[in-house]
Amino acid sequence: MTGAPRSADPSVTVPSAVEPPAAGPVAADPSLAGPSRTGPPPGPGAPPVRRRRPRPGLLLGAAGLLVVAVAATAVTFASGGHADRATSPDRRPPSTTKVTRQTLVDRETKNGELGYGTPRARDSRLSGTVTWLAPGGATVKRGKTLYRIDDEPVVLLYGGLPAYRVLRSGVSGTDVKQFEQNLAALGHTGFTVDEDFTSATADAVRDWQEDLGLPETGQIEPARIVYAPAEVRVESHGVEVGDTVGAGKAVLSTTGTTRLVTCTLDVEDQRLARKGAEVTITLPDGTRSTGRVDTVETVVQTSAATTGKDAETDTRIEVTITGDDAKALAGYDKAAVDVGLVASERADVLTVPVAALLTLAEGGYGLEAVQEGGTRIVAVRTGLFADGRVEVSGDAVTEGLTVGMPGD
């Protein structure tokens, strides 16, 4: 904030100059700056009076005390409700500005990446030789093959619950219902979609296995299914055709098929990560579009350990943004973009440049109001800070009020 702390109440006036004390006898020595002390003159024959020259430090100290005393008097006077009477006709700020009414937006621009979101590795749960992989960039839908191990397919189905056990006649549970929903969506009938795996379900499974070229066992091995919320896009391969894999080996990675912008923030910028908040997206060619924050996740990134040092961890905020206009984002497969994130917004508020604020000695902030005949210090309450301006309010703050600004 500008300058030394100023003392004010919402109506405190600070005079521009301190009036000198009433005139009195002045010391004969012209070097004496202050008024002399009064007393009886020396009698005849008395030794001459020796006047001691005041030390500069004492003079400065006395002057400082006098200024403080007068300032305190001014504060007391102004606090009594007579602020408008004491103005500063000789003191004017170097420059001025107006209190204006506008909408303040706390927005910051961050780096983002346009793509399809964070890839997810798909690990094999089988051991064998990789005989086929869905091509990179391909879209795989429900019931289609992601990859083949020993020339037998591993199939994509839709759902949020991972396959974790063998499904067979007599088994019940939510995972049974999820599988039966997929089986019905693929056109297989003759069973009831519920949480019970019945003999009718087993018959439908055998038909499905026959279509896939799998042994017709009537039961489902969890290693043959990969669940995802919807269709997926193959991002990259972790192995090549002909490689031998074991359980836990990443075969390929997938993403969703919707164009997304991913933005990673420092923890101190968490105020910008508000789910549902509107954002702006600036593409490499300068085209601007809009979107909204879809997901906000806290992620811990671990750096590789170096010789003699442990690995370091770093906590970040990962924000996923969906575009409002898919066509506007369709021209790029991957691209670096600028993301305008909004933390908060205040509509129709009174604002001034941040530089106009004064720090008050009694705490808080004030403005130097410029009026006909002088200036006065008025206390203000501050709100949102954004774009070099600050929201202000107070009894003496009105739209169009002229306030002082610091000089260059």
UniProtKB/TrEMBL annotation:
Sequence ranges assigned to domain Peptidoglycan binding-like in this UniProt record: 172-221
Transmembrane regions: 58-78
UniProt GO cellular component terms: cell envelope
SUPFAM superfamilies: PGBD-like
Major place of residence: other
Pfam families listed in its UniProt record: PG_binding_1
Amino acid composition bias (Low complexity), ranges on this chain: 14-37
Record keywords, A-Z: Coiled coil, Membrane, Transmembrane, Transmembrane helix
Source species, domain of life: Bacteria
Matches recorded under Gene3D superfamilies: 2.40.420.20, PGBD-like superfamily/PGBD
Pro residues: bias regions: 38-47
Region annotation (Disordered) ranges: 1-55, 80-100
Bias type Basic and acidic residues, positions: 82-93
Annotated compartments: Cell envelope
Statement: the UniProt record of this protein carries the keyword 4Fe-4S: no
Protein name: Multidrug efflux pump subunit AcrA (Membrane-fusion protein)
